[in-house]
Amino acid sequence: MEGTVRYGIVGVGMMGREHIMNLAHLRSHGVSVAAAADPHPPSRRQALDLAASFDWPIQVFSSHHELLDSGICDVVIVSTPNMTHFQILMDIVNHPKPHHILVEKPLCTTVRDCKTIIEEVRKRPEIMVQVGLEYRYMPPVAKLIEVVKSGTLGQVKMVSIREHRFPFLVKVNNWNRFNANSGGTLVEKCCHFFDLMRLFTAADPVRVMASGAIDVNHKDEVYDGKVPDIIDNAYAIVEFENGSRGMLDLCMFAEGSKNEQEISVVGDIGKGEAFVPENIVHVGTRAGGRGGVQIIKTDDKRIKYEGLHHGSSYLEHLNFLAAIRAKGDQAPSVGLQDGLFSVAMGVAAQLSIEKGRFVSIEEVINETI
Ligand SMILES: NC(=O)c1ccc[n+]([C@@H]2O[C@H](COP(=O)([O-])OP(=O)(O)OC[C@H]3O[C@@H](n4cnc5c(N)ncnc54)[C@H](O)[C@@H]3O)[C@@H](O)[C@H]2O)c1
Predict the structure, then answer these.
(1) Closest ligand 1 atom, CA of 84?
(2) Do residues 280 and 293 touch, judged by C-beta distance below 8 A?
(3) Is the pTM of this model over 0.90?
(4) How far is the CA of 80 from the centre of ligand 1 (A)?
(5) Which class for 327: exposed (0-12), middle (13-18), buried (19 or more C-beta within 10 A)?
(6) Using one digit for the tens of pLDDT, what is the confidence trace for 197-252?
(7) What is the dihedral of CA 61, 97, 129, 313, to 10 degrees?
(8) Alpha carbon nearest to ligand 1 atom 40, residue
(9) Which run of H or E residues covers position 271?
(10) Distance 182 CA to ligand 1 centre (A)
């Protein structure tokens, strides 16, 4: 793709506008935002104002169909509520004009929908799709991935990810308050962590056991007569094909935490830890003991905009843009298969809570449950 790469943003709520901000900081890389689509007038207005502040005279539409038909975009970012991803992706992939796609996580809210999207995209080899599993790019996480890949820790045996944070934010029309819309907490936000577990263990998951509940948050909220059903805390254990194990510890009423994410990866030689937002990585070996633990301050000089996610969205865009410009010679670093597995693990975890037993990934992928 020669010259300026023109982006269209479908869904310009919090994350859509965050994408506009990131793209504005990438202007010198030859990108522009040409259009936005959103049925919610206040979101459209905010997107227009934001784009105007960067001198981008964007066209705004109330639906993605008009944006696609306008023909003014090369790339579409899907940053709409999770339950809308499937239909919007189907419409983009089946549109006569090819558009590359960056879809926010989760790819879709169900495994069946993820699989259908993968089949449809296969029919359009000229379209490239990247999934927004951007935690991979956070500097301390990226550093830990590099340490693991270097072999310093040996064969990875255990990956433990703790996310202790604030409750879900308020979203447009409160879509994120119900499992039916978000896919459930372990799909909606924990797909990021399941994706990281697959990366660290370099293996696919076999089965998942989880325990979780809605214990503190949203209990006094009512929308159209219904109280939210999204869980606010959980433990999940994942077993991988190569015998390694992952554990997720999620708490969404833990504002009193120094870090939001604490990731520990232990191999048969050593241990690595990443702390976000402290931006620190610890690396030690069994031989070196406590005294030998190295403390590394992480940083990525390429980041020109930290934004809401510690610069990871910026790096995600750099990466996606490089893949676009490589015109098929470079696959996006987070592909559809990664999107599918991260959803499947979340779905298995949600089902495990419901059923009180291990749920295999095969049951979920083959929909035998
Ligand atoms: N990468 C991350 O870490 C991260 C962080 C937050 C949100 N997200 C994801 O980004 C997406 C959007 O979340 P958000 O926080 O911006 O939500 P939001 O509610 O702030 O914004 C969603 C916007 O989409 C619009 N919308 C709804 N249906 C639409 C449709 N059919 N076509 C076009 N626009 C439509 C809404 O009107 C709203 O303006 C979700 O998939 C969410 O999971 C990812």
Answers:
(1) 31
(2) no
(3) yes
(4) 3
(5) exposed
(6) 999 999 999 999 999 999 999 999 999 999 999 999 999 999 999 999 999 999 99
(7) -40
(8) 81
(9) strand 270-276
(10) 10
